[in-house]
What does this fold into?
Amino acid sequence: MHTEVDVVVVGCGPVGALTANLLGVHGVSTLVLERSVEPHGQPRAFSADDEALRIYQQAGLAGQLMADMYPSPVAEYVNAKGELFAELALSEVDFGLGYRPLYFFDQPRLEHTLRAGLDRFDHVTLRLGADVVAMAPGPDAVMLTVRGTDGTTQTVRARYVLGCDGARSTVRTFAGINLIGSSYEEPWLAVSGDIPANGVRVDRTRFVCDWRRPAFVSPGTHGSYRMEFMLMPGELAHQMERPATIAALVEPYVDPERFAVSRAVVYGFHNLIADRWRVGRVFLLGDAAHQMPPFMGQGLCSGLRDAANLAWKLALVLSRAADEDLLDTYEQERRPHAAAMARTSVRLGKVFLARSRAGAWARDTALRAIQTVPRVRRFLRHFEFKPLPAHDAGLMASGRRRGVEGRMFPQPLVLAAGSPSPRPLDDVLGAGFAVIGPGVDPQLAADPRWQGLPVTFLRVRPAGTTLLGAADVGDIEGGLAAWYARDKAEVALLRPDRFVFATGQADDVPRLTALLTTRLRHGAPMNATT
It folds into this structure.
């Protein structure tokens, strides 16, 4: 059997499944190949942030996924005695993207929802028990040899191949791509399970910065609880995974008699990045492209950002609405942000992992002292050290980040024509480009240069005014007006992933339209300054 398809996604973990859903939204013919026959079934990844939820929203699945998520209101940093020395007041944090900054989820439930989402698309197929055993890239396509569970093989011809197959990526190996970075020698025991409410002893997300045994504990969704403990020198995996050992470790946080363990496994973590994320028609996403320490909970979130960046670009190239050079901006845009997130995770880990009594005392004392400065306290308490969603260079009007160009556009609630209730902005923007602002003329959507490109024109109306047409949205909270006032702009041209391509005045729209379409269709340098 010979199969031809536009895109093959190798691996159907959370990143692969989300990628396939986004490709489905953009109308791309997609085949997902997953080696395992059964669902993964293990609660490995367990945290998501506001960017991740906004990406799930773009896939049309945020509502279903949030029903199975727990939004953490606070994250505490305590010393060995349980004394608080730093706190992230997550319930007070709003980065403007439409969601809370931290959620916990159950990975098997999340994967089930993501896979079920694929059923919406006739042009997306999930094939289980399909192992990629050979890959032959060519100038026009990639040939994959796929072996089924019965040992028979078939050939699949794909225009593009996306390696979403994890840290031990087969696609990465076949593409001859190396990982650069380091692995950490400190192994950790991850314990997941279920506990009734009256069996919980610590009901908050907590980093236990005990220099003798650092730990992380947090309640999760649907009565679940997650704990992680660093192993000490000489401790072995099989010893730590014993029920008696686990019961002793979890006892300060949950009642071990009522705690039903679903997973207990020793693991190590890495700070690695692929030396290339693209080789011709082959791309790496998620853990196949980058792996980082877990202290920011950003491993999976970074993979979701990869998918959101690449899916719409592939759709444009495959539809001939954009030149293939556009795909070079995937790594150009995503690598610096992933690297910055990894560096922040490492720095946070150094705070978390002080390994001596003197070092822990110095850390606690210093953090308490600097938080007496209001601005520093706010920087820590409101999670401002997290790298913002922004690109240093790539597909933006200036080629490089300048002002709000290259940053993610906010997502407030808006009132749309014909809708009695407020809606998140992205639900009104659609899946393509968007021109939005108080100075937008909706008739400019007829500009012939938009032919073949999906675009929505929206005119922002002040709160309390009457919506005049289908292209109007009401700025019910005033957030959009404040955003445009800060940038001294009347319009913004947004990419499908909601990053800002350009801003300007009302009469700049034809020029910005021409600039974007020229960049897309004629392969103009993405790092040029205009």
Summary: DSSP finds 14 helices and 28 strands in the chain. The longest strand covers residues 153-163. The mean pLDDT is 92.
